[in-house]
Specification:
- The protein has two domains: about 260 residues, Carbon-nitrogen hydrolase (Nitrilase/N-carbamoyl-D-aminoacid amidohydrolase), CATH 3.60.110.10; about 200 residues, HUPs (Rossmann fold, 3-Layer(aba) Sandwich).
- Strand 8, helix 4 and strand 9 form a beta-alpha-beta unit.
- Helix 3 packs parallel to helix 4, helix 6 packs across helix 12 and helix 14 packs across helix 16.
- It is of the alpha/beta class.
- The protein starts with a strand and ends in an 18-residue tail after the last helix.
- The protein has 18 helices and 19 strands.
- The strands form four sheets. The protein has a seven-stranded mixed beta sheet. Strands 6-7-8-9-12-13 form a six-stranded mixed beta sheet, covered by helices on one side. Strands 18-17-16-19 form a four-stranded parallel beta sheet, sandwiched between helices.
- Helices cover about 35% and strands about 20% of the residues.
- It catalyses: deamido-NAD(+) + L-glutamine + ATP + H2O = L-glutamate + AMP + diphosphate + NAD(+) + H(+).
- Belongs to the NAD synthetase family. In the C-terminal section; belongs to the NAD synthetase family.
């Protein structure tokens, strides 16, 4: 039988760094040729611009730079075939394309046929779809090219088979969310069963703003069996042997990495997201407020694992309501992880603010206003330290809290990046316990104690919110699955609780618009995924439709220093 060795370049690219990305291609292609003996090397979708370039695509200079970078690669690489992704303009229309290079010449150009325009994707804003398959002869084997969404529907693979292809090569920038690997496997097996073509699936790796790409490149034979299962969250060159004759084709020799547990996948997603956001944006390190609670404790572990302890600083900012155990546990965790740690009491600042507001607040009962002053003093301190040190301020709020507005604008929401923004409170606990299996990280008492904002005497989160086990289930149904009030109540949840949670989510949109970006790890995150209007009568409409009317006077909860 004849053989073909394919290298999958699972690499971390930087959006907009066209020249830097091109140099990565040159170096990687040479390594695939010289060290791995590959005949062909594949690179991720939109290799040269990175994915997603968003409105950078509207700047003509980006396209010119991409073409110049492609010419540079063609001059610099020989002795191995390459498939590289880039935006190409043809007949006045911009396409998401892949180019097949051999010995300095472009053998073929392929334009993505299926443009996703849902969830975090808006490719129809920029690109026109291609109309035809692209089949290239590689050492006597006809192979077809595909780009990401092309394999999520039936027609492109069928067209490729009809055009004579015997192997499908798919270049991807497929973002991670929980259970994404299982979804990909099902989709690829569906395409194989429909077309009869084995599939080599290369995915990008790395973080880009809210998105994280897990790599986890794959190859499946004609029977749908895995023949390559590359590691997630790791850059690398992964090779595969393709054996073929006139009648048969088989795959072999691919690395088979065990599938990590969901907790491991999610935790590594957060680490990758923080590492790339901080490093790609040129920050010296990370900074956070360490309250002695579980959210900030988990965020600190993520930051340390992403950047190293020498680049992380934690600040405890106690007030009258801060429990002694919170101060003790925060200091203990900082020592365990080896990070810089300081304590700055905020009582003098809070008292100064209260004195300045004395005439305004005179005769009015205490409420969340006084609590939020504490939170905003902390936010101001942390931002000052961030400015002075060049370290990115990480916020510590989780998805459950952001969903219902249980956070303080310009207080605990102040910062540049939110690692836990798409992580529910119940998952925070799961990840905390997982992190402690990797080594000392979070004091057990922090995990066990009831969560509290510590902005008032004897305060507890459950005084203001339903139990997190219930809240998170309702939020998953309403936010991630778009279920209606009736659907959620029919699943067994108390109508008044569902009503209240839905109202809080809808009323808190204005806060989320002012929140920093965070790592997307679920099917529906706040940000690119879910774009609701701030000003809307939708809540009143729900009230008319359902037997339990939404209250007109529900207040969005504000607080800070969660847990």
């Amino acid at each position: 039988m004849n053989s073909l060795k394919i290298a999958l370049a699972q690499i971390n690219l930087l959006v907009g760094d066209v020249e830097g990305n091109a140099e990565r291609v040159v170096v990687t292609a040479r390594e695939a040729r010289d060290r791995h003996g590959a005949d062909l090397v594949l690179f991720p979708e939109l290799t040269l611009t990175g994915y997603p370039p968003e409105d950078l695509l509207l700047r003509g200079t980006l396209l010119q730079r991409a073409q110049a970078a492609l010419d540079h690669i063609a001059r610099e690489v020989s002795g191995i075939d390459l498939v590289v992704g880039l935006p190409l303009r043809e007949s006045g229309r911009l396409h998401n394309s892949a180019v097949y290079l051999r010995e300095g010449k472009v053998l073929a150009r392929y334009h993505k046929q299926v443009l996703p325009n849902y969830s975090v994707f808006d490719e129809k804003r920029y690109f026109h779809p291609g109309k035809a398959p692209c089949v290239v002869d590689v050492k006597g084997l006809p192979v077809a090219l595909a780009l990401c969404e092309d394999v999520w529907v039936s027609e492109p693979a069928r067209r490729s088979r009809s055009a004579g292809a015997r192997l499908l090569l798919s270049l991807n920038a497929s973002p991670f969310h929980l259970s994404k690997h299982e979804e990909r496997l099902k989709v690829l097996r569906d395409r194989i069963y429909e077309s009869g073509l084995p599939v080599v699936y290369l995915n990008a790796v790395g973080g880009q703003d809210e998105l994280v790409f897990d790599g986890h490149s794959l190859a499946l034979d004609r029977g749908g069996a895995l023949q390559l299962n590359a590691p997630s969250w790791q850059e690398g060159i992964y090779t595969l042997e393709v054996h073929f004759d006139r009648r048969d084709i088989s795959l072999s020799g691919g690395l088979m990495t065990p599938i990590p547990a969901p907790e491991a996948q999610l935790y590594q997603a957060l680490v990758m997201g923080v590492r790339d956001y901080v490093n790609k944006n040129g920050f010296k390190g990370a900074l956070l407020g360490l309250s002695g609670g579980i959210d900030s404790a988990l965020t600190l572990c993520v930051a340390v694992d992403a950047l190293g302890p020498e680049r992380v600083e934690a600040v405890m900012m106690p007030y009258h309501y801060t429990a002694d155990m919170s101060r003790t546990d925060a200091a203990a965790q900082a020592r365990t992880l080896g990070v810089a740690y300081r304590e700055i009491p905020i009582a003098p600042m809070v008292e100064a603010f209260m004195a300045g507001l004395a005439d305004v607040l005179a005769g009015l009962p205490a409420d969340t206003t006084e609590e939020n002053i504490q939170a905003r003093c902390r936010g101001t301190l942390l931002m000052a330290i961030s400015n002075k040190t060049g370290r990115m301020l990480l916020t510590t709020g989780n998805k459950s809290e952001m969903a219902v507005g249980y956070a303080t604008l310009y207080g605990d929401m102040a910062g540049g990046f939110a690692p836990l923004k798409d992580v529910s409170k119940c998952w925070v606990y799961r990840l905390a316990r997982y992190r402690n299996t990797l080594g000392p990280g979070i004091p057990e008492r922090v995990i066990e104690r009831p969560p509290s904002a510590e902005l008032a005497p004897d305060q507890c989160d459950q005084d203001s919110l339903p139990p997190y086990e219930i809240l998170d289930c309702i939020l998953e149904r309403f936010v991630e699955q778009d279920q209606s009030f009736t659907d959620i109540v029919s699943a067994g949840f108390e109508p008044a609780t569902v009503e209240r949670v839905m109202a809080l989510v809808l009323r808190s949109e204005y806060k989320r618009r002012q929140a920093p970006p965070g790592v997307r790890v679920t099917r529906r995150a706040f940000g690119k995924d879910r774009r609701y209007p701030i000003t809307s009568g939708y809540g009143r409409l729900l009230g008319r439709q359902h037997p339990v009317a939404l209250s007109s006077n529900l207040q969005v909860v504000e607080k800070n220093e969660k847990d």
